[in-house]
Amino acid sequence: MTETSKDFKDIFTPLKNSASSYVQNLRQQAFAQLQNLDLPTTKHEEWKYTSLKNLAKESFALAQPTDLNPKDFFVNNLENFYKIVFVNGFLQENQTLLPSQVEFLSFQEAEKQGKLDNLLGSIAKTENDYFNALNTAFCDKGFYLRIPKNTKIDKPIVVYHIISGGFAFLQRNIVLAETGCQARIINLYLANDSKSSFTNEISEIFVAENAHLDCYKIQNEKNQSYRIDTTQVEQKSYSKFAMTTISLNGGLIRNNLNILIEGEYCETYMNGLSYVKGKTHMDHHTLADHRKPNSYSNELYKGLYDENSTGVFNGKIYVRQNAQKTNAYQQNRNVLLSEKASVYTKPQLEIWADDVKCSHGATTGKLDETALFYMRARGISEAEARKLLLKAFANEVIEKIEVEELKEYVENLI
Amino acid sequence: MLSIENLHAKIDDKEILKGIHLQINAGEVHAIMGPNGSGKSTLAAVLAGKEQYEVTEGSITFLGKNLLELAPEERAGEGIFLAFQHPIEIPGVTTTNFLKTALNEIRKYQGLDPLDAVQFLKLLKEKAKILQMDESLMKRSLNEGFSGGEKKRNEIFQMAMLEPRLAILDETDSGLDIDALRIVAEGVNKLRNSQNAFLIITHFQRILDYIQPDFVHVLYDGKIIKSGGKELALELEEKGYDWVKAEAVA
């Protein structure tokens, strides 16, 4: 008997036959695999510190379109940028604002036109992965975005993900950053109310040779939202990919960020800042998988955990035998702001190559008492000193945000 | 200005200060010397309000107020400044931002309006000149990657910015080369006036060549065992502490 009995495969309705035989086969295969999979429990190595027990107790209805006005959620600071808007997984097509250079389609339209063939599911695998199989079998919402060869998108693209009401939904996105292109994508996760919701979102991002893609996630939902989020990236030679994840609110968030470095001389950056309180459970699983020589990856995840919150960090670096001259760095630093907060951190380096430079470090501690006293001895009140120290801690990650307007927005949230 | 009566203090059940009496008036410079472990830094920490130390007996009165009832930040507001023996590095907080916050919090405590950016920068430049501080250091994180000498000088620079009534220099001279020592001493001398006072805690007589003390005290085993004028420092430098200890026992 497993600790959870809930099965999302009973919630979602099977999809009609696809116009694409590729997608059709993929779905059938995922559906078949799903029959042998259960919602992962803490006995599962990858879910050891993240229990889905409470999620299993919730009951959700399938998400329906709502009449919520997404404009109420738009961030002033970011209003000059391009825009894609989802409410409960439904694309708000009338809100889409994109430059003419890009190709943008809803998931369903892309499926119909065969755009997903050979891409969908090609890097987000369904074997032995409950949520990937679930998403692949049942999801027909999300988007397809192609940034054509050698195109520079002049302004960031902001993707709003708004949830409203106690619903469950799936989302699937495909991003194709073609050779030599340059773009920035900002994902904002916001919630309208505190009702329990469940989202499983998977993004497959293909970064071609010489392409530069800079991505952000600002996770700021409500304390009853469950989010299982997987971002699967494939990088080709001379490409640069950066993901900065700022997590501020949510009930249970699991982020899987897996980067397959399939090219030489790639640069990969993974930055994370979690500042959570209440009972938020924040789980970051990351992977930098170096499969070719001469690439560089750098990861910095910092966490501030207050009240009863829990943090999990599991950062893997694989350096395959073939990936000589790899430089890979990883740091995880956590501060516990309350006696009741806790963090589980597990850096994992697996190196098969012999000529590499790799390092990792993890620390968890309290706010520096000697620094607090030093500041107080200069006349700064304890509350103000704490604020300064927290900001200083967070700033190391915030400074890496290359979009000024976004940096300002995030600074104001903290 | 400062009156310490029969001060006893302990940390982790170990008594360090065993009955200190000290009277400091405005306009005076006092030096406290003593061998390692005599309680010099404990006295500095207790005056600044470090919570790990427990005062078990005695009193400290500063400008008519019971200092022991005040939090560290309130003491700073009243005009107490401690130049730390080991200044702390605070990554992510620039010296400028730190000082602006400190100065305006103290001004708030004293019922004064905060300085705006222009006024603050003017003051910063003025004081940086006195301490010959490289202004590029101010934009960096507080003390991060600073050399030992730069950190000590930064302490005195902060003192110059905050203009305390009583400045306690806890072994500020340790680790300074002669040039840096001279700059620090000149800074102190420029700030010295009839309204403020200095308590200089040191191992070495050297700093007192540059800052002339009015009184020199010898701290030994948690008590002041001898007090005198500046010539006492020279005598200690020459003869060591043993004769004072012997005199105290006798």
Could you characterize the architecture of this molecule?
The complex is a heterodimer of chains A (414) and B (250). Chain A folds into two domains: 8-262, no CATH class; 370-414, no CATH class. Chain A has helices at residues 21-34, 53-57, 107-112, 130-138, 369-376, 382-398, 404-413; strands at residues 61-62, 82-87, 90-91, 103-106, 142-147, 157-163, 167-177, 182-191, 197-207, 212-220, 225-235, 240-249, 252-261, 267-276, 281-290, 296-305, 310-319, 327-336, 342-351, 357-365. Chain A is 17% helix and 41% strand. Chain A has 414 residues and is an alpha/beta fold. Chain A contains seven helices and 20 strands. In chain A, a hairpin with a 2-residue loop joins strand 2 and strand 3. Residues 1-5 of chain A have low confidence and may be disordered. In chain A, strands 1, 4, 5, 7, 9, 11, 13, 15, 17 and 19 form a ten-stranded mixed sheet that branches. Chain B has helices at residues 40-48, 72-78, 95-109, 117-130, 135-138, 148-162, 178-191, 231-239, 242-249, and strands at 2-11, 14-24, 29-33, 54-62, 65-66, 80-83, 90-94, 141-142, 166-170, 197-202, 215-220, 223-228. In chain B, the strands form three sheets. A six-stranded mixed sheet of chain B has the order 6-9-10-3-11-12, with helices on both faces. Chain B has a four-stranded antiparallel sheet with strand order 2-1-4-5, covered by helices on one side. Chain B has a two-stranded antiparallel ribbon with strand order 7-8. In chain B, a hairpin with a 2-residue loop joins strand 1 and strand 2 (14-24). The longest helix of chain B is centred in the middle third of the chain and has 15 residues, at 95-109. At the A-B interface, helix 5 and helix 6 of A face helix 2, strand 7 and helix 3 of B.
